[in-house]
User: What shape does this take?
Amino acid sequence: GAVVSQHPSRVICKSGTSVKIECRSLDFQATTMFWYRQFPKQSLMLMATSNEGSKATYEQGVEKDKFLINHASLTLSTLTVTSAHPEDSSFYICSAQGVNEKLFFGSGTQLSVL
Amino acid sequence: RKEVEQDPGPFNVPEGATVAFNCTYSNSASQSFFWYRQDCRKEPKLLMSVYSSGNEDGRFTAQLNRASQYISLLIRDSKLSDSATYLCVVGGKLIFGQGTELSVKP
Assistant: This one.
């Protein structure tokens, strides 16, 4: 089946630093990728929709200047958490949309900001 | 009303039990529906798509009721390995429900 690779799987960083997370579709081309955030015991919250070659569409309440998304190719989307703070600590997951709207997920990135 | 709402959990059932989850959605124009399974701190994995006519995959049966705007997932003969959080997903914006936690006990 389709594979989506996400890394790093875990990041621990100091407050104020920026963190980049990569999401790659390994065996298919994904014009659309999604970025989610998940806090403990809660569901996935869609942060933004990333479209290849165009600006990402952010959900209400998500700061576009804080969470920079780049989807420069059909197989790679990146999320950069700029000037991370402890409240940004969360589990971030990407997904790529395949045929028939099925979503294939990366394995997630656990971000801990000290 | 939330766009997608699931049965609150957790569901604690013994091995071999049959358990059903419901998920309601607010957008009557939605066309695609899925059930995903998520293990703790892991990515969600597609369990099954939900078709208008209903579909079955082994011990799992998914159904769609457009009139009442809900989808359901039935798990028969529960196994310990079925313990997870089950997420319903409604397209086209692929909105996730909050998840229903299932714990199967020996």
